[in-house]
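Sample log: Ubiquitin-like protease family profile domain-containing protein.
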Amino acid sequence: MNTYKVHNLAVQPDGSSCGWWVLTCALLLVCGVSPETVDTKKTLRKIGVSGIKELWERLWIDWRTNSTGLCTELLMEFLSQFSDRNCLQEGVLHVAERPSWISQYVPGQPSQTEIPAFKNADESSSSSVLRTLNKQRYAGIMAGIERLSIENQHAAADDLKRLEVGRWINDEIINMWRQVMLVKYEMTNSSDGTTTWIFTTFSYPKIKYWYDNLDKKESSALFSKLRKWYKDINLSGLDECYFPVHLREEGHWILAKVSFTQHHIILYDSWGPTQKKNADIHKAENAEGVQTAQILCTWAGKEAELRQMSNPSQWDLIPAGFSEVAQTPIQDNTYDCGVFVMIYLQHFLELGQINNFDPNAKPGNDFATKLFCSAENIFNLRKAILNGILNHAEITPIPACKFLQIYAIEKLMKLIQWSWNPSQWNLSSQKFLIVKLVNQSSPWIVILVRLRTKRNSVVVCGRPGCLGLKPVVTSNG
């Protein structure tokens, strides 16, 4: 039976850069450099994550801008730091010729393909969105024992970190922002005159599931089940509603608007190539992303029919970029789509359209200066979203049995040795915690910590011996 041997290089200093190290080790192996030697590992640690990302940024841009391939001079500059390289022949100027079907990358111009994010802004504290957080007020959140809550929506520390520049936005952040919009613009799910509604990010997948099963016997039952999710919303009294849509195959966020008064469905997409392609198409059914509009069209028509609304079957589909009303500011990378969706949403609710500012507004106007929708203003947009969530949310404890992430053995030792006070962590009502220990040289290790608040003791159960620790029961009395 074939087996393989695992080599623990122990060069990765964090929990997020594994992909960069895989690429780098693959490059070294191709160039005849063994990542296992002591000297190589020492050199890799010296280069560090920032150096590795800088390397790949230079290599990628050079390869995408030159049709003849990657300049060997760049490779040799990197490989010169290692002693056992042996693959590059003298006189070879370029390697790995770029295929013709991969478009040339021109810096400063929109690309037809995804552009990787080589650097995260949170690597520099000066450009961190979260750096202004009140450390004392939000200590429990960043420690993983509290979270932000607005009604039934919640966001933990890992969710907030996604607001850093260079990070993808997830469902939790968008749904929290949706809740902020509902509160800010006084939208309720009752029939008290609300004319606009925002659905959660989980609504469209349910509609799509029903749509995908239209030709099956259970389609009627599925639609009845679907309607229960929004039974409290008075669709008959709505002029329009919005759907934040995550296209999972593309890993991309877009915003869909359904207008019951004008009978059209518009898609807003910040991805430039999609807008550019659809602007040259004459028929909407041939446009990029039109399937999303068709799914919502089928749903809206069904609802209009059941609620006896006018013209239930007549709907216009307007894909992103297809007409002027669907042309929006575009992102200049592959990770800001969720931010644009949230800002699109607020602009429509506040201004009626994107960047529709009063020309007579003063330059110091808070909304106009901080929420101007553009790729250049992305830091302020992310910061404004964070502040909006913080201003409307309450701090609530995370229920018992949630996972805490501890990133060093020293922190676990402090936990075991009872060097912390449970009253400071709001754990008096919790019976036990499940602690995930992240060690640089080990996989995830789960340890059960049982709290005895009356005796101020901690019992660590499981296999702490695998960390070189002995099972310990400590008590202060």
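Observation: Residues 120-126, 400-434, 436-477 have pLDDT under 50 and may be disordered.
Observation: Residues 399-475 form one domain.
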